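Self-study notes.
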Amino acid sequence: MKIATFNVNGINGRLPVLLGWLAEAEPDVVCLQELKAPDEKFPRRALEAAGYGAVWHGQKSWNGVAILARGAEPLETRRALPGDSDDSHSRYIEAAVRGVLVACLYLPNGNPAPGPKFAYKLAWFERLIAHAADLLGSTAPVVLAGDFNVMPTDLDVYKPERWEGDALFRPEVRDAYQRLLAQGWTDAVRSLHPGERIYTFWDYFRNAWGRNAGLRLDHLLLSPSLADRLAAAGVDRDVRGWEKASDHAPAWIELGEPRRPQAGRRARRPRAGAD
């Protein structure tokens, strides 16, 4: 089972890129962020023609998240992060797909920091941590996938000294990410590539793509039962170089089949009269 996350930076404007990548990579499940489209403008028919069912939570001009499933219809289980009934941002959606609970999220950017936007980011992160604990408590196989807008370590950012005051790299944000992992989640890409510089985002400015001056913002976190099935993980970085591409590239994982419990061997009974 192949699960991917992709910040498309405007689903209708980047639709040829998205459809081209879906045809090439053939992921089974895809989490999308930054749709930048209201619900009625979501390109459902084009995605159906490509073989994908979808659930989505759109928003005009900003935000927006969706979950796609190849050859299936995701069963929506939640479309807002709990903890703040006044939060109107479309940043979270959850669905069951082929026995896995998929949570797609777009965590706030938070800049400038400090300030109201940064405070909102930290509060949203705390709500995510609380809900993630509940998801782990359910014992369901869960993946938290999306644009977390955080570079967890120095390996995840080009020239970290230049990002020390940024909302994506401040200690409070990295601490929140580590507290999330400490619940029992596995950062799939980092677990299989512990010492590599891997990026998922390259800015449009200052020739960031050409210089490989990137950031790793897009993550797939696995509950323990899914972490045991992790077979591969990576980033389709070449997609960032396509014409009219998003500033993000898709990150993905591959999961093996669930392990079946081994049946216990029955003790052989001695035959009558045996010594």
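Second protein, same conventions, sequence then structure:
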Amino acid sequence: MPHSVSSPDPLGHALLAFHRGTDSAATLTVHSNVAEDEPLPASYFFRSLWEMPELERLALEECRGRVLDLGAGAGCHTLELQQRGFAVKAVDVSEGAVHVMQARGVQEVARHELFAVPAEAGGYDTLLMLMNGLGLVGTLDGLERFLKYAHTLLAPGGQILATSSDISYLYEDEEGALVFDLNGPYYGEVEYTMSYEQETGAAFSWLFADASILQDYAEAAGYDVEFLAEDEQQQYLVRLTVRN
């Protein structure tokens, strides 16, 4: 396994440092255009089943058949599914994350951009997108594109299990009224960068889709939509099933 990871990959370097024990407190700093900088401990990517939020545990229960874990990080969901006997492929764009997953025993792992994941004969029965994983699509345009693209990855009747959040609360004034520019971009399109130690990664877009806009886009793209659960942080778990 290569010992070096091409830069910049702050996420991958933080995960590797934590996994190898060279920095047991490895913590990323997440910078965004909507909120203060936030710390993100690498340890969070290594959580066990009982450290996972309820929405994630429910998503794992709802998986079926051949699973594709998109944005798999350090592989905590893939490893749990493997233990349950599922055939799972884990995908992440971070080279360091891929090395960590290989070292942790993920049986099938590959480094791909979201829109470069190769289709597989027979397709996947479940696409898994956890940790606000729907955000990988970046923007509403990206969501529309992804929902079409996912048809090429899914088996007939296949499902997408994804979490996302409504972040409109960030735009409330003191009276609780929402204040955002209706002529600007959709309020759930956020720009992020991540840094670890002296390394800062490239900026990337992340989508937080409110439930009604997701339902509109998914139904237009040929999916049945079922909201399975919601937590106190306005995060929800949704199942999108290819309409036969």
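Instructor comment on the second fold: Helices lie at 10-20, 54-62, 76-83, 95-104, 140-153, 211-220.
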